[in-house]
Amino acid sequence: MPGLLAGRLVQIGVVLTLLSALTWLAMGLMPGDPVDLALSADPRLTAEDAARLRALHGLDQPLWQRYLAWAGAVLRGEFGFSRLYAVPVTEVLWPALRSTLVLLGWSLLLSAGLGIGLGVLGAVRRGAGVLADGVALLAQSLPGFWLGILLIILFAVELGWLPAGGMAEGWGLAEGARFLALPVATLAFVNIAAYARHSLSAMREEMAQPYIRTARMKGLPERQVIWGHAFPNAAIPVVTVAALDAGSLVSGALVTETIFARPGMGKLIYDSIMGNDYNLALLALLLAALVTMLATLAADIVQRIIDPRLAA
Amino acid sequence: MIRLALGLLLLGMLGLGALAAPWVQAWLGTDPFAPDLMARYGPVSAAHPLGTDELGRDLLLRLLHGARVSLSVGLAVAVGATGLGTAIGLLAAWRGGWVDAVLMRVADGMLALPALPLLVVLAAVDTGRFGLLRGEAASDILRIVLILLIFGWVGTARLARAAALTQLSLDYVAAARVSGASEGRVLLRHVLPNIAGPIGVAAALAVAGAILAESTLSFLGLGIQPPAPSWGNMLSNAQEMVFSAPMQAVWPGLCILLAVAGCTLAADGLRRR
């Protein structure tokens, strides 16, 4: 286990370093720089002013030198400022991260719970398998943003029960839940597919094993046979899915937050890239990648805990 | 079998619709690219079977033209990703050693990342410097295909590598080598046909993934740029109108759903055969 942990942390470090360098390059290729934006905002700026501003912010340096300067500052813990919001980036990043983690947490809980429930039901009840298959196909094929729009049309426009987007103003739990309901439902439903499919096939496999027949022969109640004997074994591939799915969950959060105008990491990344806010965009992107990779690592550790064969 | 047939039927219908777009346009006699501001959000009528959009353009025709864009992006990405992924997977399995290690670490690293935020960054890159102008349908399609290929090869490569490793350890490969076949012949004539099954399944799923990714990027305003229609950018227009014209949002999404479900069903059917 310590070996796995050390190896994976090194891997995460390498990926983050490469990612930051490549993204820096990609952002250098985007149209316009902050001084161009300042120029278009203020007609009194002259060409000399522009050159002076570029020199002041180091924008006249080659791309790789700017990258090294930036990376050094980040390693010293100086994350710099957001140009778009005119505050230190950490002040925008933390609230966004918290909002996204709340969205991700509830969605993961809901999609794993419903998906696994559906898969298990499909494997033990004759006929329910078609239901599980159908829901999985639908969930896999639905574009997340379209589902979001449909939910807005139904619950916000037609019925008027829930807000179409935004965040709760106060701290009230019920109010927060009203704003969370549609985004969580959108993100969770799209992610049900993988859980339902894999728990369905894993449970079908386990239920056909001889040890299940033995357990039934001993006179155990069916509930005990399913949840006590078959499920722990079927859970192993399902946890693998959770690990592989961390990336698509974070990707889904970007779309969901954009549709529902929730100020989270996804919307932050989108807005900062659109607004030419290099520094914020890069840090937000790295943070999202870090969260994804840590989630994958956590799922791998859980997998080793529930499957002793892997721990050796 | 039912799955495969159903999937191919769905894809066939959408494909026929896409091919038939010019004839339907001639038959209806309306231009899906010419705005008609007097006929915004027009109701369903004989001239406009699904009504009109926010600029008074025929919705059905825009859907059919959008099908051309979305399906060609899906097919192009799937062909490219399958070719590239198979080549990389075969190379990794055949060469082994550090080549294998490097390629698979890269693949692992890319799988661990959230794809969409990175696609957003890539889609925002100024491609005008490389001669790909934004806003022209053909260069937009090429740009999206190239971006999706960057992530598209990974899944196929891992699958092809695993399948090829199994095949390379079998006796018939040794027999082919002993009888004097060159390495290229062993890989292309002996190994490749035997791993075609799983690769075909991956290719069908790649079409589905590419259609979803293209529509998501176009929805976010980073993919195919208007006035060229794509199912994704039709939805981004429609989102702003959910309060006044909710049906605008239904049709493009339904097309994406059917296309992706068609590919998934076909892939499922292929896998079970």
TrEMBL record, chain A:
The chain crosses the membrane at residues 12-30, 103-124, 136-157, 177-196, 225-244, 280-302. It is found in: Cell membrane. Its main location: membrane. It is a multi-pass membrane protein. Residues 97-299 form the ABC transmembrane type-1 domain. PROSITE patterns: ABC_TM1 (PS50928). CDD domains: TM_PBP2. InterPro entries: MetI-like, MetI-like_sf. Keywords: Cell membrane, Membrane, Transmembrane, Transmembrane helix, Transport. Belongs to the binding-protein-dependent transport system permease family. This is ABC transporter permease.
UniProtKB/TrEMBL annotation, chain B:
Its main location: membrane. CDD domains: TM_PBP2. It holds the Pfam family BPD_transp_1. It is found in: Cell membrane. Keywords: Cell membrane, Membrane, Transmembrane, Transmembrane helix, Transport. Gene3D superfamilies: MetI-like. The chain crosses the membrane at residues 69-94, 106-125, 141-160, 195-213, 249-267. It is a multi-pass membrane protein. Residues 67-267 form the ABC transmembrane type-1 domain. PROSITE patterns: ABC_TM1. It comes from the Bacteria. Belongs to the binding-protein-dependent transport system permease family. This is ABC transporter permease. It comes from Belnapia mucosa.
